[in-house]
Amino acid sequence: MATADPVPTTPALRSEFPAPTHPDRLQVNRSDKAFCSGAYSLIDLPAGALFAKITTATPGKKAYTSVQTGPDTHIELNSDLVYCNHSCEPSVVFDMSRMEVRVVDGRPLKAGDALTFFYPSTEWDMDQPFQCTCGASVCRGLITGAKAMPADVLGEYWLNPHIEDMLKGQ
Description:
Layout: H1 11-14, E1 26-29, E2 38-41, E3 50-53, E4 58-60, E5 67-70, E6 73-76, E7 85-86, E8 92-95, E9 100-103, E10 116-117, E11 130-131, E12 142-143, H2 151-154, H3 161-168
């Protein structure tokens, strides 16, 4: 189900995270093929539960590896959470107002599940749009960010407050 690995798996970038940052929570399955690595849960959690706090982030600029935290702000995760890919049927949400990753409402997370989130829930205008290949029955196709998505589609997802505010200002 993985669709977009936010970090190419070059040896130089692999060395940035020499040891797992969440060894009790997730496993990174790395691939030498660009955009094919992914993060997988090592634990079972109920719907809505906290998966991990985001604690190693640093301010960043808009980039394919960053996560948007406000209308004009981005962070670099600096952790294995960067391997959480996009899916149109996500397993977690990245709540940037609380700096945490939670299991989606409506279904539990099981050990072995891919850790995926809906990129437009954090991103207004993607640095690198891509054609989604998540395979979900609700796959949205070209992912460019919340700015270009119909309101009825976005209404099916949990969205960060900064995305909701930007939608109101459109």
